[in-house]
Design a protein that fits this description.
Mean pLDDT: 88
CATH class of the largest domain: Alpha Beta
Shape: elongated
CATH superfamily of the largest domain: Aldolase class I
Structural class: alpha/beta
Helix content: 25-40%
Strand content: 15-25%
Distance between the termini: 20 Å
Number of strands: 14
Number of domains: 2
Order of helices and strands: EHHHEEEEEEEHEHEHEHHEHEHE
Largest sheet: 10 strands, mixed
CATH topology of the largest domain: TIM Barrel
CATH architecture of the largest domain: Alpha-Beta Barrel
């Protein structure tokens, strides 16, 4: 019976060096392999040209090298590119490359499906099948960096963890991927150009602060009133606003990094004066800015964006209280690539 091979990218640089030493090969070969895997993003042992054929055969005999494949692409009229990303076990997630005149942003997925149940998000309708591995997260970024250079003649400028899944429910793998993305011997991206967006998991927000992460934090808030937030984000019954506020204050105390509240305004849900005032009070307690996001309709829900006059009321009230606020129009709506629309409509099942 053939023993299953371990994915080589599950090994650290030190693990690789130890492997070569055990096989009578100088340890620096491990460093060379690590560079091929993470800096150059190579997916074939045979192409590691500074290794001898014998050393490449040694790797082939002991390891596999799982990697993603871009199964299909869709391009929006606004230039946004959506990838259907096939994983090694045939599950598919989606990633999105968003170009503007000055930057290109990669929107990355962290789970197959999602662990949470936000009523306004298409991904939440999918059962969480599994967490993505660090290399699968990394590969999405690598692929979109290459697409950015190919289509827009510039490397990625920003990364947002706003794709499929709740990043803080896949904490260790997400942080491991970010370590590789920011490593000078990886993609060497600045952590200040990375934003992790969470629906709000207080315990893990505290852990991020304790771990002294250097990337930015955004919170999908949508209401600063507990009873309203529970209706649109039922998991909030377990992760209350009170707990979330304490965690975010802890975050700011330990990082001194202001955060962004992502906020959609729906007709008949959070479009009242008391909703606006609750948000103002919330922002005054927690150093932050508000990003009001255009709502993108999804199948199976009757939720509608609030009237423009309500959005203006939100913006004017926040600005009058010296709270920074922006309004973000969605990109890629026509190809279901906008915020909340990623639902993997391609029917592809995993091997498990």
């Amino acid at each position: 019976m053939e023993v299953s091979k371990k994915d080589i990218r599950a090994l650290s640089k030190k693990d690789l060096e130890t492997f070569f030493i055990k096989h009578g090969v100088p340890s620096f070969k491990g460093s060379q392999v690590y560079e091929w895997l993470w800096q150059k993003g190579l997916h074939q042992f045979d192409l590691m040209t500074n290794l001898s054929k014998a050393h490449r055969a040694l790797l082939e005999a002991h390891f596999t090298l799982n990697h993603i494949q871009i199964d299909s692409q869709q391009r929006s009229v606004d230039g946004t590119l959506k990838n259907a990303v096939k994983l090694y076990d045939n599950f598919i997630v989606e990633s999105v490359l968003i170009p503007t005149s000055k930057r290109t942003t990669a929107c990355v997925s962290s789970q197959v499906g999602c662990s949470l149940d936000c009523s306004f998000c298409a991904t939440a309708s999918l059962k969480r099948m599994r967490n993505l591995n660090p290399d699968e997260i990394y590969d999405q970024v690598l692929a979109m960096n290459r697409q950015s250079q190919l289509y827009y003649n510039r490397p990625l400028s920003n990364i947002v963890f706003m794709g499929m899944g709740e990043p803080l429910m896949n904490y260790s793998n997400v942080l491991s991927a970010i370590d590789k993305i920011t490593d000078p011997k990886g993609l060497a991206m600045s952590p200040k150009r990375i934003t992790l967006s969470t629906s709000g998991v207080p315990k893990m927000i505290r852990k991020m602060a304790d771990d002294k992460v250097r990337f930015k934090l955004a919170v999908s808030l949508h209401s600063a009133r507990q009873e309203v937030r529970e209706k649109i984000m039922p998991f909030a019954k377990s992760f209350t606003l009170e707990d979330l506020e304490e965690a975010l204050l802890y975050w700011y105390l330990h990082t001194r990094s202001p955060l962004t509240f992502e906020y959609v305004v729906w007709k008949g849900i959070n479009d009242k004066k008391e909703d606006i005032q609750a948000l103002v009070k919330w922002c005054k307690r927690i150093p932050s800015k508000v990003n009001i996001i255009q709502y993108n309709p999804i199948d199976g829900t009757q939720m509608k964006q609030a009237d423009q006059s309500v959005l203006e009321d939100y913006i004017n009230t926040l600005e009058s209280q010296k709270i920074k606020v922006t309004y973000r129009r969605s990109r890629g709506v026509d190809i279901d690539a906008a915020c909340g629309q990623l639902a993997n409509k391609i029917e592809t099942k995993g091997n498990g």
